[in-house]
Amino acid sequence: MTTSWDDVRPYFERDAVAHVATLMPDGAPHSVPVWIGVEGDRLAFFSVAGSRKDENVQADPRVAFSITAPDNPLDMAFVRGEAVERITGDAAFEIIDPISQKYAGKPYFDRSAHTAFLVRPDTSWFHDYSAD
């Protein structure tokens, strides 16, 4: 089932909203929509510092993403991986602003405390079910 990250990467370079799943302290999944970017061979996303998402990733860096093509919800991809870097302060906006530019056409509006995460993709997969 594993597909190369290079094959899946284009799904995450588009401006489609992804969903990230993290693990709650009791092990329950927590899934929320996120803007997402690609930084080299890593996925990038961000969060308000101290939010549930931020706390979950700090406690357990395993994450999963799903995404569908903007024009075809049957064309989808997922990535499971590990958040290998948590970036804070002004450096976080070096990741956040390009992601915001992709989705909103401008730097991120909220300059309060945010964190950016870089995720190493471990398992990648895609399939276009409309082609079946």
From TrEMBL:
From the Swiss-Prot or TrEMBL record, what is one GO molecular function term? Answer: coenzyme F420 binding
> One GO term of the cellular component aspect?
cytosol
Annotated Pyridoxamine 5'-phosphate oxidase N-terminal domain ranges read 7-107
Q: Which of UniProt's keywords are assigned here?
A: Oxidoreductase
Protein's name according to its UniProt entry: PPOX class probable F420-dependent enzyme
